[in-house]
Structure formats: structure tokens, C-alpha cells
């Protein structure tokens, strides 16, 4: 039942177009650059390519502020390039998923330009406008990018809601015209051959009736809106309506980015009956290393313990089994690099071993794996020392709010946290080779290249048969050929619950069992697991098997 759709066996490769490959010498990646690299992506063996937004946009939030949903950002290319790209993807037997950003638009979108003209404008109700309260914002909501979630507009004398930057006003999904404009636009892209959508913060679109204040702790200047706004009261109605108007008319793959979603929510969004979305992309395992003080959000330097990680991944594997479908990932364009965050990038050997171990952890689970550009060669965090090195508005705004404004952290501590958690870590240019600018461009890139590009790059990875690249290639091939990886039942090995060094689980269907053993640490440890004498070693990141002796970051999977 769980692998009846093609995408149940699929692996997705995510491309951040601005950082993938530049071809016209301006230091910004472009569509032609992706076209040039399609054979590389095909070699990895993935089935689907997801592109971050490539639409017309002032780029306040790198394309998540869209000013025209039906035009290509000219810096990235034009509609002819797009057509060539989609044809190239299809010719190679892959599919294309586009980013759908419809919680908000850019403030430069025509809808918003009209909307702010005044209360009587026909587009006024496309957005969320309110009068102030006692000379202040309509409620206490904070923006994801620091500060209030409301901006006063002089022109029309009211506040508008922006859960993200002020240049990203939230659309009013209560308005049926907004909803049908979005469905029309989705159908327009589907007619061009797009195979699906990754839906940006889709579970934030239904705002609570009356827009009440959210819970706020003493240190917080504005409230974190996620618990109140995510999974709102009309969300399932909206997504079912979208499904009837769009998804049911095409063969599409859909994934909802759903911060704040629990397994119970996932059953509704991504139940196997597919009334709404095919799968969720949720964040619980990404939040395990957040700061315990809500005012500091994700800014901290703690490492996620194996106990917390295992408990969380296990919960999702068990609760969704036979009911709903999840994404499996460590990285995206908003997250630090997996090998620096959960693994060990201090030595070359540990970097390679821990990257493979972490890949094994997720790729042997049930769900749809996502590989983010550069993950397949073990790219690391950038460790930029100065605030000026960072480009992303989230990091820069958080620094000013927490250090300069609220004095909750000193500058040096915040810089340490930014080096660990900044979204820029994911956005440094793809490292293709050891030439200047890493083969990404021959021009100074829009975001600095990670200084380690001479050691870590695609050219080196492809020349080394033991590279992280070929390990991912093998994991993908195993998923395509072994049904147990997509349909087997997940179970923790008895007694593993409290082990703070080794993670051991099984996957089992009617004819096959897999035993996955993963050392999360740099220690050599001794553990005994019952492995039948008939078992074969399916994949491992060491050259030999020392059975009960499990070496640093060792990963091995037995099949029986
Ligand atoms: O991200 C939504 C989201 O939940 C992020 O704000 C996340 O919490 C944060 O980036 C973690 O640091 C999506 C996109 O993936 C992101 O790139 C956009 O900036 C955001 O929506 C607004 O569109
Ligand atoms: Ca370019």
C-alpha cells in the first residue's frame, strides 16, 4: 500500500539556482547553468529536480518575494531557457518540481501595488489590512525575520500583515478570488509541463479568525507566530479545494513545506488517500538544536544528541507508517550543512565517514529523500568570520535585534551562532572544481565561495570511487531496486532506545530484513547485534567489517 505511486520510490535533488552554475559571467547562477549540469544530476541517479523560485522578483528574500508568478527572473534567464531546461529534464527521464510561494507575494507584485492604493481598490482584499490598536500594531505578532509582522502604510492609512519581510505581504486566503488566481497560475505552469510543486510555508496560509495576540515570553519583543498561525482552521478546506482545482487534473507530485506540523497534522496533509498533498516537509528534527530561550529562536551552538534525534526520527517513522508520507532530509537552502551540523568536518576522514553515515540514516528510512546541492559531495558550513560576509536578511536582522536592540547576546556569541546556523551556509556557490570561484563562475559570485573548495569539489568526488558522491549514488540505486526500503516496517533494535552512541534499526517486509547500524560519534565502540550467518553486507562506509567493533561514524546495513 505504501509504495503504489512512482514518487514513493523517488529521490529528489534540490537546486538553488542562484548558487548552482553561472554561464553569463555575472556571478549569479542561471537556468543555462542548470541545463549544462543535467548530465551530472542524472549521473547521481535522482528522479526529480526541485528548483527554488526562478520567477520575477526584487530578490529581497532570494526569489521568495515574487512580483510576477508567470515570468522568469531575467537574471536567471527567459522562457525559452526554461522550456529548454524542462525538455532536457524530461529527455533524461526526470521530473521538474517548481517552488510555489503563495503565502505572500512581493510588495512589487501588481496585486499589492493596487491593493495599497486605498480601501476601495478591488485588490484591497487580496492582502490582510487592519487598523492599528492604541497607536500600535493590530496585534503582537513577530515576523520570521525579526521585528513586528505588521507594517504601517502611509498611503492608505492601515497596517498590512507580513509574516516574513515587510517586502513580502501575506495574501488573504479568505478571499476566493485570491485562491482561484493561485489555482489558475498553477494550472498555467502545469500546461507548460511542470510536474509538481513544493509549496512554501503552505500551512501558514489560513490565519486564525480575528487575528488574536499570540503567546509571548518575557524576553520576546514580538511573539513567535508559528504555534498560533500554522495549521490554521481552514487549511484543509483550502488544500482540498486546491486539489480539486489543480492536482486532480494533472499527474503531479506535491510536497508541502509545513513548519510546526506534527505527525497528526501530517496524516491530514499527506494521508495516503492523497486528498491534499503527496507528502509533508516538516521541521521537528531541525529544531532539536534550537535555543531553549524562545527569544533566541534557532540561535545557539548546541549539538543535537543522538537520543533526541533517534526519538524524533523514530516517532515519524512509526506514526506515519501505513497512514501518510514524509520527506527525508538533512539539508535545504535554509539549513546549515549536515556534515558540519550533525556530523564532523574537523578532519577529512571524519567528514567523509560522517557524511556517509548520516546519508545512510535517512536513506534507509521510509519517505522521499531530498538531496540538497553540494550535500552529495559533503560541502560544509562556510564559517565566515564577519557579519559583512553574510548576505541573508534573516541573519543580519537577527544580529541587529538580539545584539544591538535587545542586548540579549554579545556580538561575539551571536557571530558564533550565525556561523553555525546562518542560511548562507547552504547558499555558498556549488563547488565544481579547484579553479578560481570553484568553477561556479569566472566572476566574483553574489555570495562568497566556501574557502575549502580546493579540497571539496565535484571534480575530485567524481575521480574517487570511494567518494561521498558514489555512496549517495549507491543509496539511490538501492532505493530504486529494493522494495523493503520504501515499504518495509521500521523498528528500533531492542534496547537501542537509550544508546547515546549507536543508532540501530531494522526495516522489514515479507521477504527481506535490513539491519542498519550507525555510529553517531568519533569513538570506537563495542556492541553486539544478532546478525544471522546468512546475512550479507549491503552497504558500508568502511572497507571491511569488524562485526562487534564499530568504528568512528561507521555505517553498515545488513540484508537477510
Ligand atoms: O521558509 C519558511 C521557514 O519556515 C523558514 O523561515 C525557516 O524557519 C527559516 O528559514 C529557518 O532559518 C520558507 C523558505 O524556505 C525560505 O527560504 C523563505 O525565506 C521563507 O519561506 C519565506 O518565503
Ligand atoms: Ca548568470
UniProtKB/TrEMBL annotation:
The keyword Hydrolase applies. GO terms for molecular function: alpha-amylase activity. It comes from the Bacteria. GO terms for biological process: oligosaccharide catabolic process. Belongs to the glycosyl hydrolase 13 family. Residues 14-427 form the Glycosyl hydrolase family 13 catalytic domain. This is Alpha-glucosidase. The keyword Hydrolase applies. Gene3D superfamilies: Glycosidases, Golgi alpha-mannosidase II, Oligo-1,6-glucosidase, Domain 2. Pfam families: Alpha-amylase. Keywords: Glycosidase, Hydrolase.
Amino acid at each position: 500500500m505504501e509504495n503504489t505511486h512512482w514518487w514513493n520510490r523517488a529521490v529528489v535533488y534540490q537546486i538553488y539556482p542562484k548558487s548552482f552554475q553561472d554561464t553569463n559571467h555575472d556571478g549569479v547562477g542561471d537556468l543555462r547553468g542548470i541545463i549544462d549540469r543535467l548530465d551530472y544530476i542524472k549521473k547521481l541517479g535522482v528522479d526529480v529536480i526541485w528548483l527554488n523560485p526562478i520567477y520575477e522578483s526584487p530578490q529581497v528574500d532570494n526569489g521568495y518575494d515574487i512580483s510576477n508568478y508567470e515570468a522568469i527572473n531575467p537574471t536567471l534567464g527567459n522562457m525559452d531557457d526554461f522550456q529548454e531546461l524542462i525538455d532536457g529534464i524530461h529527455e533524461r527521464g526526470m521530473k521538474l518540481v517548481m517552488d510555489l510561494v503563495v503565502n505572500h507575494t512581493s510588495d512589487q507584485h501588481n496585486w499589492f501595488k493596487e491593493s495599497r492604493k486605498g480601501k476601495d481598490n478591488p485588490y484591497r482584499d487580496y492582502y490582510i489590512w487592519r487598523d492599528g490598536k492604541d497607536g500600535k500594531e493590530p496585534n503582537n505578532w513577530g515576523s520570521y525575520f525579526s521585528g513586528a509582522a505588521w507594517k504601517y502604510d502611509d498611503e492608505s492609512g492601515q497596517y498590512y500583515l507580513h509574516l516574513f519581510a515587510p517586502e513580502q505581504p501575506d495574501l488573504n486566503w479568505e478571499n476566493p478570488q485570491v485562491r482561484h488566481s493561485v489555482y489558475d497560475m498553477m494550472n498555467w505552469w502545469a500546461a507548460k509541463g511542470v510536474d509538481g510543486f513544493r509549496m512554501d510555508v503552505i500551512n501558514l496560509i489560513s490565519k486564525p479568525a480575528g487575528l488574536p495576540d499570540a503567546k509571548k515570553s518575557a524576553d520576546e519583543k514580538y511573539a513567535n507566530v508559528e504555534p498560533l498561525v500554522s495549521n490554521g482552521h481552514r487549511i484543509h478546506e483550502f488544500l482540498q479545494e486546491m486539489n480539486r482545482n489543480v492536482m486532480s487534473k494533472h499527474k503531479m507530485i506535491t510536497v508541502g513545506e509545513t513548519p510546526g506540523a506534527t505527525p497528526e497534522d501530517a496524516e491530514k496533509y499527506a494521508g495516503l488517500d492523497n486528498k491534499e498533498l503527496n507528502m509533508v516537509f516538516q521541521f521537528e528534527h531541525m529544531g532539536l538544536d534550537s535555543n531553549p530561550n524562545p527569544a533566541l529562536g534557532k540561535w545557539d551552538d548546541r549539538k543535537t544528541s543522538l537520543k533526541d534525534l533517534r526519538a524524533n526520527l523514530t516517532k515519524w517513522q512509526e506514526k506515519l507508517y501505513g497512514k501518510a508520507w514524509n520527506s527525508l532530509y538533512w539539508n535545504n537552502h535554509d539549513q546549515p550543512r549536515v556534515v558540519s551540523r550533525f556530523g564532523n568536518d574537523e578532519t577529512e576522514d571524519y567528514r567523509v565517514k560522517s557524511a556517509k553515515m548520516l546519508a545512510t540514516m535517512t536513506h534507509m528510512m521510509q519517505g522521499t529523500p531530498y538531496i540538497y546541492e553540494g550535500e552529495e559531495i559533503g560541502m560544509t558550513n562556510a564559517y565566515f568570520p564577519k557579519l559583512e560576509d553574510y548576505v541573508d536578511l534573516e541573519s543580519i536582522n537577527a544580529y541587529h535585534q538580539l545584539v544591538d536592540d535587545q542586548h540579549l547576546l554579545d556580538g561575539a556569541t551571536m557571530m558564533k551562532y550565525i556561523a553555525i546556523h546562518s542560511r548562507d551556509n547552504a547558499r555558498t556557490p556549488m563547488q565544481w572544481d579547484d579553479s578560481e570561484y570553484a568553477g561556479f563562475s569566472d566572476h566574483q559570485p553574489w555570495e562568497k565561495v566556501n574557502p575549502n573548495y580546493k579540497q571539496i569539489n565535484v571534480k575530485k568526488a567524481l575521480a574517487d570511487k570511494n567518494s561521498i558522491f558514489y555512496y549517495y549514488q549507491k543509496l539511490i540505486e538501492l532505493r530504486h531496486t529494493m522494495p523493503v526500503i520504501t515499504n518495509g516496517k521500521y523498528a528500533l533494535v531492542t534496547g537501542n532506545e537509550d544508546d547515546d552512541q549507536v543508532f540501530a534499526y531494522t526495516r522489514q517486509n515479507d521477504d527481506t530484513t535490513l539491519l542498519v547500524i550507525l555510529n553517531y560519534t568519533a569513538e570506537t565502540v563495542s556492541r553486539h547485534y544478532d546478525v544471522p550467518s546468512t546475512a550479507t553486507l549491503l552497504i558500508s562506509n568502511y572497507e571491511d567489517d569488524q562485526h562487534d567493533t564499530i568504528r568512528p561514524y561507521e555505517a553498515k546495513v545488513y540484508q537477510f
